[in-house]
């Protein structure tokens, strides 16, 4: 591992520095460190309410703010960890773009803390002067110096997370724009593996908006604070959506491979059980531009294997028997995800799109099963969820053959 990569991994956000370096959090795994943070902040808050005889709503509102802070921290961890561990693309242009993005997002200048500090200052000035009625509502009249100081500390914790969410979201959108322009300029593609983890990062950025809803009871009585909260949510969700939109316009595969995956009629699906025993079956499949999807029986051997081992491979092969060297094939290696009831219900638009892809690609197959499916054994019927499940293959690496010439596609 290079020194540069080690330095990137050592860079952390301010709240990560606290959890990693300050006892007792530094002695605990990240999950338990967040739980400890929640407990300590809650205990201190409740003691403050009891000792200074603050109203009950102070305890309730403070608990909501503390929960929001901890949930924000957990989401931020889910954002930072993949970014620190992910491999950089091999293409020099893409590598420079992603490297620049990671240097900025984990900058030693802590831009996220700067954004949080500015946000804290503006909110503190507002609630101390024109919005003083908020302090009276949160803490009651004349709460004392210590409750006021703890409230301002909690305000910083919330504001820092808001600044972090805005910074990571805005920077991700800029990164997607850089990447799209670089690919448009040179042509070609960015490997799916790089785009996949960046898109998951953008989705986690989008989720950074949702802890703000825990703060609604706190700001509901103040129109300005309510608008600030709503504006933050709209900003994070909309900018993340723009970033994802730009990422999805970046080609994840070379054109010839994308065409092969879309036009290939059959594939060989390989899986193995927990002991490594292989299993291969022919399947029909569809390709949505990023992932391949198959539908398999709930009692199939491959589904049993996938429950023990998610690693899988798919081979799509098109060849002319008259000319053995006139062939095209792609071998996809990756992780399989089985769509149970919760995942199907959570992705209704994707389900409708997959249904349309299967109907368009295999009209005769779909028609035959619709008309005579009741004559088939129960395990072969196509009733989704009851008899069959959807399996998605996320590609991590790929090999491509064309006229007996092997091309290795970076993952």
Characterise the protein shown here.
A hairpin with a 5-residue loop joins strand 1 (267-272) and strand 2 (278-283). The chain has helices spanning 3-10, 14-21, 30-51, 56-85, 92-105, 111-128, 132-139, 145-186, 192-207, 216-219, 223-248, 255-263, 301-308, 341-346, 348-361, 363-372; strands at residues 267-272, 278-283, 286-287, 292-297, 311-320, 323-339, 388-402, 405-409. Strands 1, 2, 3, 4, 5, 6, 7 and 8 form an 8-stranded antiparallel beta sheet that branches. By secondary structure, it is α+β, with helices and mostly antiparallel strands. The protein is 59% helix and 16% strand. Helix 3 runs antiparallel to helix 4 (56-85). The radius of gyration is 26 Å and the shape is elongated.
What's the domain count? 2
Order of helices and strands: HHHHHHHHHHHHEEEEHEEHHHEE
**Radius of gyration, in angstroms, nearest whole number:** 26 Å
Give me the count of strands: 8
Backbone shape: elongated
